[in-house]
Design goal:
- With about 180 residues, this protein is α/β, with parallel strands linked by helices.
- It is about 45% helix and about 10% strand.
- The protein contains seven helices and five strands.
- A three-stranded parallel sheet has the order 1-2-3, with helices on one face.
Length: about 180
């Protein structure tokens, strides 16, 4: 649902700027439906269609665009760590055709809420995808906050969606409190 709301926000921003779809610009939405190998094909198709701008809504789509669209402007969102994704060396030293807004979690607030709701909790559990930079970044951020607040974080890797249920069961056997 976040992606749909993000897309609608972009369209609203263009309307608010006085631009009319079909007259001033065209939007073509391409969605890999979670099939990562399809991303490169979609970026290539957008470039072949003469796209003037690519808007990406995830780290994998940003990475595919960075690899294939070096001269076309790229705007990203829903990326926790654009630097780790390859967008540049820092938020001020980035590739000249890339801009966007990183999306980070409310790590402090979530860990504080666990402490408030479960005051005796000591061990927190999470699943993450080691090959996905956002997932690793988010796990590391949660671990940092959790450690600072006196929790131990137990993280279990799930490399594919097929592994999630087994990873969750494994996590539950490790005596986590939340």
């Amino acid at each position: 649902r976040d992606v749909e709301e993000g897309e609608e926000g972009i369209r609203a921003g263009l309307r608010d700027a006085g631009l009319t779809e079909g007259r001033d610009y065209q939007v073509r939405v391409r969605n890999a439906q979670g099939d990562m190998p399809t991303l490169s094909t979609l970026v290539d198709a957008a470039l072949a269609d003469g796209a003037d701008l690519l808007m990406t809504f995830s780290t994998p789509t940003l990475q595919a665009a960075l690899q294939r669209a070096r001269a076309v402007p790229i705007v990203f969102t829903f990326v926790a760590d654009a630097i780790a994704a390859g967008a540049g060396r820092s938020n001020t030293d980035h590739l000249p055709n890339v801009t966007g807004v990183p999306t980070t979690g409310a790590y402090d607030e979530v860990v504080a809420l666990v402490r408030e709701c479960l005051p005796s909790a000591r061990r927190l559990g999470t699943l993450f995808v080691p090959a996905e930079v956002n997932s690793v970044y988010n796990k590391d951020q949660v671990e940092s906050v959790a450690t600072r607040r006196g929790f131990e974080l137990v993280a279990v890797a799930a490399n594919t969606s097929a592994e999630v249920s087994d990873a969750a069961l494994s996590l539950l056997t490790r005596r986590i409190d939340a």
